[in-house]
Design goal:
single chain, mainly beta, 723 residues, 40 strands
């Protein structure tokens, strides 16, 4: 059996592009060569033992290296190649052992390495779920022969035959000599070879072997293989190629984007373009590359954070790293032994309005002058209490709000460079499931447009994933401000994003503030709900505010008092009806006054208004405090009458001389009360009482300010009067 080994590679000789995160250089085994990757790659087979094990399992099935064909001759051998040989691999030093396949294929033929135990009498599957693909080196003929590389995955339970499902990837023998081939797992397709294999999608959990073969070759040919290896998944987070370092503030005036911090010591961030021949060039760099430059002179501590931002740089936008194993980056250091640290900002408190993300730190020493590649598994980070009230609930990686880099006492001015911050690996523990979530916790769109909402997976799946979506509680009105929707999104295998749309109406009315709609994901199939599964859609008003408007009754009425037999309610009238207000929008809120035997009502303003420049008033309004209306010429409103000939009296109270503060309590006059004297079971007056539904997200107060986990509904069975 082969023992676990690892190999690192370098991307070189790129034409028409710039090397980014994969431009890496590593110390390799003596026979190894440079390929495209960015982290440690586990070898599956490298043939250095010079042996090709063969045997039979308990059911007399051939395992180890097994040839097969349409009857055409196939022969496998291993051969040792010297460094100066025409068969030497690129950059090879010393001897190297490779696999040779001689064949003369009429229709099809090849071989399988069916993974075996040490005594070669038992199938021994391998778990490849942590990886994203497979790579190998091929010495081809360049004659255009059809080749294929295959994976043998997942046998039937209790199987006694070779019924592993075959996943194939065809390609052409287009290069004479060595070339590196890398195949993502999602590029393989299932191949029915009539062996009764299960057809249950690719998971990589039970890989029983790999295979290589050829189609009609048109004569005798020889192919060579070496270094069959697994590809570690990697996603670049920041590579600085835009040359920009976004900065901004969120709605709570918390800095986001790139933010420096220190004990008062100077920190300066810039980006710089590095030519390929510069002393600052990354190993094997071709073309220009942009890196982050950090100038500092640290007395005790200092550094910077990239607090993940949205495109407008006004909202925190956390990322889900829960399915990855660690973070990596390139550092150009001074080699002076300075204490450095790399940190992660994870998981803020519910409804947070401050920078209270939990800090996870990894200290290390600046021990190398020049570039070095650093990988930090998440398991090596430790929680760091910085006194910001952060939650202390363990690292999950589901809500990464940013990363940070810093230095301890530097002993003078220093300059460091960073590039290609990335996350790598794939966790396979049971809690690391595929998760589905919105790609941000806040969307914004204007009235009269269609909002596009993006839903994402944290990892691809080999089987379809579905999730239900719907609009939920809203300050906007369905049918007037937006069109309520619900439905199901389907993620095909190997996809990551899907979208749905919310149609927003333009109502020609000044809403006075943006309206909010809550969007919800629920009932996932094939995945778990991730963060965030609830989000907000902000409808931005496209109408200029009516500076002279006092009430339009589109959102009920507030501050009104009645005297006598008067009942106030609001009603909604649609355009084209007899009650429609001239020139109104699609719908219009109106105040309905029901009265018998006289009576009156008044409206109290929350602040005083100056009406000295106006010429008249046609309503009864009492304000809770004076308002300055001196710059206006009058007051107007629409009134729907009965043509009864009755006189409607309006009174304007000007220059209030007394307030509650200077009147003794025994002379206070009750202005309004609600006695809830209706019949038991009657809902409270909806023109006065409005249920606060949801979890607080609708009013930008998730958890209602005290981290409540309840979800309040407006069901008629949950709020009514009781005797």
């Amino acid at each position: 059996m082969l023992k676990n080994k690892s190999i690192r590679f370098t991307l070189v000789a790129v034409l028409g592009a710039t090397l980014l995160f994969a431009a890496l250089s590593f110390l390799l085994p003596v026979h190894a060569i440079a390929v495209a990757s960015g982290t440690t790659l586990p070898l599956v087979d490298d043939f250095e033992t010079g042996k090709l094990p063969t045997g039979k399992d308990a059911n007399n099935l051939a395992i180890g290296y097994v040839t097969w064909s349409d009857g055409s001759p196939i022969a496998l051998t291993v051969t040792t190649v010297a460094a100066g040989s025409p068969l030497a691999m690129p950059n090879q030093t010393g001897n190297n052992t490779i696999l040779k396949m001689d064949s003369n294929i009429n229709s099809w033929g090849g071989f399988t390495h069916a993974f075996e135990n040490e005594t070669v009498n038992t199938w021994t599957p391998q778990d490849w779920r942590s990886y994203s693909g497979i790579g190998f080196w091929l010495y081809g003929t360049g004659k255009g022969t059809g080749l294929f590389f295959e994976l043998k995955e997942n046998r039937n339970p209790g199987s006694t035959k070779d019924d592993a499902e075959t996943w194939t990837h065809p390609f052409t023998d287009s290069v004479a000599g060595w070339r590196y081939v890398e195949i993502p797992f999602n590029a393989f397709t299932s191949k029915n070879i009539g062996n009764g294999a299960p057809n249950d999608g690719f998971t990589g959990e039970q890989i029983h072997g790999w295979a290589f073969g050829s189609l009609t070759s048109g004569g005798a040919q020889s192919h060579y293989l070496d270094n069959i290896m697994l590809i570690v998944r990697k996603t670049v987070i920041d590579d600085f190629e835009t040359g920009k370092l976004p900065t901004g503030k969120d709605a709570n005036n918390v800095s986001i984007g790139y933010v420096t911090w220190s004990d008062g010591s100077p920190i300066a961030l810039t980006t710089t373009t590095v030519a390929a021949n510069s002393p600052l060039a990354l190993p094997n760099q071709t073309g220009a590359n942009i890196v982050l430059k950090i100038n500092s002179n640290i007395n005790q501590w200092g550094g910077f954070t990239h607090a993940f931002e949205n495109e407008a740089v006004n909202t925190w936008t956390p990322q889900d790293w829960s399915s990855y194993e660690g973070v990596s980056f390139w550092l150009y250091g001074t080699g002076k032994g300075t204490g450095l640290f790399f940190e992660l900002k994870e998981n803020r408190n519910p409804g947070s309005t401050t920078d209270d993300a939990e800090t996870w730190t990894h200290p290390f020493t600046d021990s190398v002058a020049g570039w070095r590649y650093i990988e930090v598994p998440f398991t090596t980070f430790t929680s760091k209490n910085i006194g910001n009230g952060a939650p202390n609930d363990g690292f999950t990686g589901e809500q990464i709000h940013g990363w940070a880099f810093g230095s301890l006492t530097s002993g003078g001015a220093q300059t460091h460079y960073l590039d290609n911050i990335a996350i790598y690996g794939r966790k396979t523990t049971t809690e690391q499931k595929v998760k589905v979530a919105f790609n941000t916790n806040r969307y914004t769109a204007r009235e009269g447009t269609t909002a596009t909402i993006t839903v994402t997976l944290n990892a691809t799946s080999t089987t379809p994933i579905t999730v239900s979506y719907a609009t939920r509680e809203s300050g906007a009105i369905d049918g007037r401000d937006y069109e309520a929707i619900s439905g199901t999104l389907v993620f095909p295998p190997n996809s990551l994003t899907q979208t749905f749309s919310v149609k927003l109406w333009s109502d020609k009315q000044d809403e006075r503030k943006d309206e909010l709609i809550v969007l919800l994901l629920s009932q996932p199939e094939g995945a778990a709900l991730g963060y965030p599964f609830r989000t907000i859609l902000v409808i931005q008003d496209d109408n200029a505010p009516n500076v002279m408007g006092l009430d339009d009754f589109n959102e009920g009425f507030y501050g009104y008092q009645t005297t006598g037999n008067v009942t106030l309610t609001t009603d909604e009238v649609m355009t084209g009806t007899a009650m429609a207000v001239p020139g109104q929008a699609k719908s219009e809120g109106i105040l309905k006054v029901a009265h018998t035997n006289g009576g009156k009502f008044n409206r109290t303003f929350t602040s005083p208004q100056n009406w000295s420049n106006y010429g008249g008033l046609r309503f009864w309004y009492t304000f809770t405090s004076p308002q300055n209306w001196s710059n206006y010429g009058g007051l107007r409103f629409w009134y729907y009458g009965k043509n009864s000939g009755q006189t409607i009296t309006t009174t304007l109270n000007d220059n209030l001389t007394q307030t509650t503060a200077n009147v003794s309590p025994d002379k206070w006059v009750l202005r309004w009360s609600e006695e809830f004297s209706e019949t038991a079971g009657t809902p409270p007056n909806p023109n006065i009482w409005t249920p606060e539904i949801g979890d607080g997200a609708l009013v930008d107060n998730v958890g209602w300010g005290n981290s409540e986990l309840q979800y309040y509904t407006d069901s008629k069975g949950t709020w009514s009067l009781r005797s």
